[in-house]
Write a structure and sequence with these properties.
alpha/beta, Uracil-DNA Glycosylase, subunit E, two-stranded antiparallel ribbon, 7 helices, 6 strands, globular
Length: about 250
């Protein structure tokens, strides 16, 4: 039976008040504060009207990960809109949830880039977040069965501010921008920042194999690890079931 991942009334405002201090600068501008107030009011109205809104923890991606801790940024669009799916981390679902097609393609790409690596049995991408991967949707809530239902309601102003805060951090990051929606955020990255920016089609089956840059075969996960090592940082273990990076010799360390 799916977990109950519905947002409860007044929880969004309460979670906003408990956001980590490291992210406070993103909300300092009045336009961002106003946008957050607007989407919060809309969410509360929809809950009052009986809508089911996901996930229960919209700001989960920000907890345990300060901007200075972020090493890799992966952007999604809005949360999964089915019961028990969305967790507050882009592309991630609970381990006992049916694997969404985009996540299946992500795991298939990782297995291709790291030969001999089994496709993970789990679906929860928390181990990536624990290593400094910011898994951020550009809209942080959605209504049951209604994709993009909370897009253009203010979330984009909020998440643009979060992306900009990460991009201004002096430590270079890898930005993996999949699909036109994510690639539009390239404009938020400062010139000469030293960031690695990798772009391809979205991992959705509708676009994963299409030109000009198919997601399948893009090589982003290995390229990210190569770049991190060149920066003097540890590579990301992209596996969820076991370590997949016996790479010290491979990277010449």
């Amino acid at each position: 039976m799916p977990i109950d991942n519905r947002l409860v009334p007044h929880a969004l405002a309460a979670q906003t008040a408990q956001l980590p201090d490291a992210w406070a600068a993103a909300f300092a501008h009045s336009a961002v504060a106003d946008a957050l107030a607007a989407i919060t009011a809309h969410v509360e109205q929809r809950l009052t009207e009986g809508a089911s809104v996901y996930p229960a923890t919209p700001f989960r991606a920000l907890h345990g990960l300060a901007p200075s801790d972020v090493r890799v940024v992966i952007l999604g669009q809005d949360p999964y809109h089915g019961p028990g799916q969305a967790q507050g981390l882009a592309f991630s679902v609970p381990d006992d949830c049916k694997r969404p097609p985009s996540l299946r393609n992500i795991f298939n790409e990782i297995a291709q880039e790291f030969p001999g690596t089994p496709v993970p049995q789990g679906n929860d991408l928390s181990p990536w977040a624990d290593q400094g991967v910011l898994l951020l949707n550009t809209a942080l809530t959605v209504e049951d069965g209604l994709p993009a239902s909370h897009a253009k309601r203010g979330w984009e102003t909020v998440t643009d501010a979060l992306i900009s805060l990460v991009a201004r951090d002096p430590s270079p990051k890898a930005f993996l921008l999949w699909g036109a929606h994510a690639q539009a955020k390239r404009l938020l990255l400062p010139d000469n920042s030293g960031h690695l920016v990798l772009m391809s089609n979205h991992p959705s089956p509708l676009s994963a194999r299409r030109p000009p840059v198919p997601f399948l075969g893009c090589g982003h996960f290995r390229a990210t690890n190569d770049w991190l090592v060149d920066q003097g940082k540890n590579p990301i273990d992209w596996g969820l079931d076991k370590k997949i990076i016996p790479l010290q010799g491979e990277f010449g360390l």
